[in-house]
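ESCALATION

Customer reports they have been waiting on this structure for their group meeting. Please prioritize. Original submission:
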Amino acid sequence: MKTRYFRDRFGHQASTVVQLDSRRSLLISTSQWPDGVLTTTATVRTLRNGKFTLAVSTDGMGDFYKKVAVSSPGRVTAALVKAQHDSCVERLPKLHSEIAEHYNAQTAKEVHCVAGH
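Update from on-call: job pushed to the front of the queue and completed.
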């Protein structure tokens, strides 16, 4: 697990990368969105064609994505970003369970489709 706290032209941010297995990594990121909301998301990126990518899907067959926390501070400071991010990283065991559930449901759908033929 590797965590970075930094500031760039978009403001204070934090990111944590957790390698889940040889094909998947979890990215937890905290940043201020254009609407002013401080948001922490958890996304799983899967190794496809030599690159880690996020596959978006509306039918549950894409990669895992979740908004873990949102807040509306008057001003986004490094300390606020760090506090919200660290709080979300502490939820890693629960996120691991949700991620496993997400991909197990996909496997179940795929098996059900094959069995239905």
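Sent to customer with the following note: The longest strand covers residues 38-48.
Escalation resolved.
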